[in-house]
Amino acid sequence: MSKRVGVAEVAARAGVSPGTVSNTLNHPERVSPATRAQVLAAVKELGFIPNQQARVLTGAASNLLGLVVVDLMSPFFMELAHAVERTAADAGYVMILSNSENDHDREETVMRTLAAQRVVGSLLTPAGGGTPLDESTHGVPLVLIDHTTREHPCSVSVDHVAGGRMAAEHLISLGHTRLGFVAGQPNLRQFTERERGVRDVMAEAGLDPSTLRVVRADGIGQPSGLASGRQLLQDGDLPTGICCCNDMLAFGVYRALTQGGVTVPDDVALVGYDDVDFAANWIVPLTSVSQPTALMGEQAARLLIDHATNPDHEHERVVLQPRLIVRRSTTGESSGSRSAIPVR
What we know:
15% strand; 434 Repressor (Amino-terminal Domain); LacI/GalR-like_sensor; transcription; Rossmann fold; transcription cis-regulatory region binding; DNA-binding transcription factor activity; transcription regulation
């Protein structure tokens, strides 16, 4: 195993003192451009890797930022993380990705650990069921992502009420009056807002919102969607238009329906949410409410970096708009009326 290169070796190669190497890496504004270039050339040539903990002890600015999400298995959050990581890297930062698993106590532990690592700041999709964190909790800049509250001044989110409205308006425009909704965890604000949008549109269309058939999934993946779809079939009087809180749930519902002899979209129209990459290539291409996921990650990362480094930073609450992507899961040719569908 080769010996790890140290500051002394870099200094010798560059013809400067170890202190100059340290200043170049930690306080580049103190070093002339010519000397800085000389040191960085030696760093590259020797493959020197700075010790992050040593940087922290010297008071140097960290190049780390945190991202905490509620479910790493979700394609939505993976796309979000990719956008944050790419934007952070372009600005010279390294992202630390953590998963709270929608558990407030775990979230608190993760945020405390990130603060101990001296991250410049953290992006957070808050877990449900707990008191929202604020910057005073751990003393580092915080930007909420895919979530907003009146109490927190800095966030990038999507108008999920509008997204729910789009899904319901589309189904009602196709003639559906008996709607179903496969909901995610009720402690996640994003999901409750989507349901609210559906109910609002039903009321405006003269439909009784209390007739919305709601199945609350125990998770947000395909297995939970499969169980939810089976529950809808078991209950009977199947809705003819079903909205799902995300695409993964919709894929599971689709499998339950087809296993029960129900055809999408001829018998039941199905709408997802998130427009994940493979929604367009699903067995029956899925109509879905598309979030500007990459844009949300990029804007949140830039907002956090500005918050952490700009003394004149101004807080923002950025709210992005979703859009409906219509595909065959709602618009195929109908093979019959929209009467009640028997359980098979």
